[in-house]
Write a structure and sequence with these properties.
single chain; 419 residues; alpha+beta; nine-stranded mixed sheet; five-stranded antiparallel sheet; 12 helices; binds zinc ion
């Protein structure tokens, strides 16, 4: 057997997955910049392609009331509760091709493999390709998984895209009935668990030199908007000791946030991603500065304590510098812990494939944040090059795609529901 043939056999699942990742990536608003946005013609074309793959894998498949692609592979008798696998197939603009589709395509490859062997399990397998996770079109995320979890907020139907089209209108044009979104909802007794395979979107697995990891939790996040108000003044005439420089104060706050998170050692991350100084002139002392703070941690308790600590530090800096401070929480979401019983089944599968078992939290949001309302959640991360994501350079090696698929297949075949 030639080396090449051996390689093909060794990575047979990975080969198919990468081929389909490329096929799906070809469905884009523009050929140069991958963009597959909710309720567009590309959404429809991608859904049709995924439906065809599901049917080819021996599944019944349909589009649900919000545009999710849903497939079902019956267990050893019909009507059994399911292990639900899934991820999203929408993208951001100028996206990479792996974020989302890898989870959907890998799950289908696993079911196709079971089907090829004629294997039925003592539970059903369902795969959901969520229609909108990223929230690009209507600035509201997790639309597909919220519909499945029965937590879809009807008020978002009135939201409009950048062309002024409401979500209600967009659903109707797509051929879906906005008044029937409730029909997409599932209930807890139908699901044994929700399991998602996704690219890491960070550099940790690459740093550890391992292809797959066990996710411990989807980190919750707190976002704050801060405004510091001092006194604008002439850059030449106001002595340093008499200044109330809002931007210098903000700089001290930013350094304090970075230092606090950097020295935490328990997975805390903090980012100031936006700063605006007014009046914003070379020769004027900045009188007012607005900036944002994004804080994430693997547990809610750790995040809440850290946010309180950071707020105290910012208040102290403002007070010492004679700056007025306005601080508002603009967004907050809870941490979604992955179920210990699922983590251990994933860890067993990773070990059985001969890889080191490594646990890591997810700093990015995922559909599990919605699915937790109706099922225990587990996640498998697959290494991506340089940790790059939401970018055309996003890349997964064929061998890693294959490793992820073999781990997922093993988890499915050895799956035992929680008691
Ligand atoms: Zn994603």
């Amino acid at each position: 057997m030639s080396v090449e043939t051996a390689g093909l056999q060794q990575f047979s699942l990975g080969e198919q997955i990468v081929g389909r990742i490329d096929a799906l990536a070809a469905i884009s608003e523009t050929p140069e910049h991958l963009a597959r946005i909710f309720l567009t013609p590309e959404h429809r074309a991608a859904a049709d392609l995924i439906l065809s793959w599901m049917r080819e894998a021996g599944m019944r498949a349909h589009l649900d009331a919000i545009g999710n692609v849903c497939g079902r592979y019956e267990g050893d008798r019909p009507g059994l509760p399911c292990l639900m696998l899934g991820s999203h197939y929408d993208t951001v603009r100028d996206a990479g091709k792996w974020d989302g589709p890898l989870g959907v395509i890998t799950a289908i490859a696993c079911v196709a493999e079971l089907n090829r062997r004629g294997k039925r399990l003592p539970f059903a397998i369902e795969i959901t390709g969520f229609a909108d996770e990223e929230g690009v079109r209507f600035a509201s995320t997790l639309l597909g998984s919220r519909a499945i979890a029965g937590t879809f907020d009807e008020s978002v139907l009135a939201g409009r895209d950048r062309d002024g089209v409401s979500m209600r209108e967009a659903l109707q044009r797509f051929g879906l009935d906005p008044d029937h979104i409730g029909a997409a909802a599932r209930v807890r007794r139908e699901l044994l668990a929700y399991l998602e395979l996704h690219i890491e979107q960070g550099p940790v697995l690459e740093d550890q030199d391992i292809p797959v990891g066990v996710v411990t939790a989807i980190a919750g996040a707190t976002r704050l908007a801060a405004q510091l108000t001092g006194m604008a003044g002439h850059a030449g005439t106001v002595p340093m000791g008499l200044r109330h420089d809002a931007l210098a104060g903000a700089a001290e706050c930013i350094s304090a946030i970075e230092y606090f998170c950097r020295t935490d050692g328990n997975g805390l991350v903090g980012t100031v991603g936006y700063v605006r100084a007014a009046p914003g002139a070379t020769n004027v002392i900045p009188g007012q500065v607005s900036f944002t703070i994004d804080i994430r941690a693997p547990t809610d308790m750790h995040r809440n304590r850290s946010v309180a600590d950071i707020v105290r530090q910012i208040e102290a800096i403002a007070k010492r510098r004679g700056l007025a401070l306005q601080l508002d929480v603009t967004h907050e979401n809870r941490t979604v812990p992955c179920a210990p019983w699922l983590k251990s089944q994933i860890a067993n599968a990773i070990a059985a494939e001969g890889f080191a078992v490594f646990e890591l939290p997810s700093g990015a949001g995922h559909d599990g944040m919605a699915m937790i309302d109706i099922a225990d959640v587990g996640m498998i991360f697959v290494r991506c090059r340089g940790g790059v994501s939401h970018h055309p350079d996003e890349h997964v090696e064929l061998a890693d795609a294959d490793a992820g698929a073999r781990v997922l297949l093993r988890v499915i075949e050895n799956f035992r529901a929680a008691n």
